[in-house]
Amino acid sequence: MAVRWTFRAYVSPSGRKDVWKWYLRLPVPAQAEFDALLAYLVQREKAEWRMPDFKLLTGRLSGIGELRFNSQKVEYRPFGIFGPNDNEFTLLIGCSKKSSAYTPQDARETAAERATLVRALQVDTHLWEDDDEG
């Protein structure tokens, strides 16, 4: 299958690659699950991004998507958005979820704030594969 998407990640105004740092702190099995999920989604049409791998949120988080994977009895739910450019998906924050509680607790609010900044092109993003500066 053809590559349809480029994955990017939020870069803080001070230059921190927070999502990448979250990924590096994951246990190796969780990293492998996340890598497999991205490898699966990169080949799919947007209409094919759906449960159980992806959930587009509603309400005040409308337009933000939740990537969904489990590893070692932990539910991981990193948030991201389609864009800012065509065929891009930008990761905003890495998090996990238990019942209705996210870790970090402010993950939803942070995702909403970062989505606004990314859409307005007010912050940088980096290619997900471009991890040299971590």
Give the SSE string.
Answer: EHHEEEEEEEEHE
**Parts with pLDDT < 50 across at least 5 consecutive residues:** none
Q: What does the average pLDDT come to?
A: 95
Number of strands: 10
Helix content: 25-40%
The geometry reads as globular
CATH topology: YaeB-like fold
CATH architectural label? 2-Layer Sandwich
- Regarding CATH, which class? Alpha Beta
Structural class: alpha+beta
The CATH homologous superfamily is named RelE-like
Tally of helical segments: 3
- Whole-Å distance between the termini? 29 Å
Main sheet properties: 6 strands, mixed
Estimated radius of gyration: 14 Å
Sheet with the most strands: spatial strand order = 2-3-6-7-1-10
- Assembly type: single chain
Determine the strand fraction and express it as a percent band: 25-35%
